[in-house]
Amino acid sequence: MSNSLRNHSSDHQSLPVHIPGYKDFWVLIFLEMVTFGVFFVTFMVYRAQNVEMFNTSQLTLNINMGLLNTVILLTSSWAIVQAVESARKNNTSAARHYIIATILCAVSFGVVKFFEYSDKFHHGITLSTNLFYIFYFMLTIIHLFHVVIGTAILTYACKNIRQYGSGNIKFIESGASFWHMVDGFSYLHYFMF
Amino acid sequence: MISILRSSVHRGWILLMIATLTTYDLRVENLFGHWTAVATIGIALFKARLVVLDFMELRNAGTLRIVFETLLCVISVAIVGIYYFC
Q1: Reported ipTM
Q2: How many angstroms separate the Cα of A186 from the Cα of each of A29, A162, A169, B11, B63?
Q3: What 3-state DSSP class applies to B86?
Q4: What is the pTM of this model?
Q5: Which of A71, A156, A177, B56 has its CA 20 to 30 A from that of B13?
Q6: What is the pLDDT of residues A59-73, one digit of tens each?
Q7: What letter would DSSP give residue A16?
Q8: Closest C-alpha to B50, from A78, A40, A88
Q9: How far apart are CA A104 and CA A114, in angstroms?
Q10: What pLDDT sits at residue A14?
Q11: Residue range B11-70, pLDDT digits in tens
């Protein structure tokens, strides 16, 4: 192991335990992750009972729109990290700009989803088409709902940004963690849909 | 360019973008045939772990880090297990 790597490793070991945001909020995020996990496993169990139908249905989905939305959410995650860093440095103006960038990414995500759903409805694909599409609409709508909740939290933080300087950062940290959870679960969505 | 790479957040974003494009290519080209699913889930796990450690800042969160990393592993293993063995 090189010296720089060894130093990097020992730096992490010597750092004190740090949990960003409200501790109670982490319980909510954990429960959300467990719920998403159960949904994914349930999807896989039903898929195993009818692999051909699930695979054929999956081929009708637009993988390019999935890629576009993943890139949008990734970029939004980067922006919200910058917002937290700026707020920690008491630079609330920069924090506001980064939160607005995150919200714009969320709106773009919604626009892409609108076109994705419109395309499905245009081709006569609805919630009642087959079991695969029940999962598809249910999971993606729940995910979209979380994007809306995250956007509401960030909009509130943006509106009251002057309250959140370096001494009062927990609300922004918690909102950012929720946002990262929403982003993180889009990766597993991408595997299924 | 070098100053951008010094930040773990910028580095993380670049890595996540590369991983996302790799997954896209894997799926479109089906590069590993039967093993594409394992590769895709492996990359998804890598990405989710990177977000948990560097973006959610749980790298130094002690037990909470272990809880979240374990949860991600359990979900990923369950998905791959059901995919191949059910």
Answers
A1: 0.89
A2: 15, 31, 26, 20, 25
A3: coil
A4: 0.88
A5: A156
A6: 899 989 999 999 999
A7: P
A8: A78
A9: 15
A10: 65
A11: 999 999 999 999 988 888 877 777 888 898 899 999 999 999 999 999 999 999 999 999
| Cβ–Cβ gap A44/B57 under 8 Å | no
> B55 — contact with chain A (CB < 8 Å)?
yes
Residue reference for tokens 């979240």: B68
Structure tokens belonging to residue A134: 């029940």
Cα A114 to Cα A158: distance, rounded to the nearest angstrom:
25
Q: Give the B window 8-37 contacts with A, CB below 8 Å.
A: 9-10, 12-13, 16-17, 20-21, 23-24, 27-28, 37
Return the amino acid letter for A3: N
CA dist., res. A78 & res. A84, Å (int): 10
Q: Which residues, 6+ apart, have CB-to-CB distance to B58 below 8 Å?
A: A19, B52, B64, B65, B68
**Segment A27-56, tens digit of pLDDT:** 999 999 999 999 999 999 999 999 999 999
Nearest to A90 by CA among A169, A21, A163, A165: A165
Q: Taking a C-beta distance cutoff of 8 angstroms, is the pair A39, B73 a contact?
A: no
Is the CB of B64 inside 8 Å of chain A's CB atoms? yes
Taking alpha carbons only, the member of A123, A128, A140 closest to residue A192 is: A140
Torsional sign, CA A28, B50, B2, A102: negative
